């Protein structure tokens, strides 16, 4: 996980997970709409997952 990806996940979480698939983008986007903190946490968890 690079510094720029972490910075992007803090500023705009859906853009940070754009290469992880449509489902990840949708989940992060919905959480981001509900609140900024849940979206950031979800994006960081998805980016930190070594299997994807």
Automatic annotation (TrEMBL):
Keyword set, alphabetical order: Membrane, Transmembrane, Transmembrane helix
The keyword Transmembrane helix appears for this protein: yes
Matches recorded under InterPro entries: PMP3
Tagged with keyword Membrane: yes
Location within or outside the cell: Membrane
CC terms in the record's Gene Ontology section: membrane
Main location: membrane
Record family assignment: Belongs to the UPF0057 (PMP3) family.
Name of the protein in question: YqaE/Pmp3 family membrane protein
Native source organism of the sequence: Formosa maritima
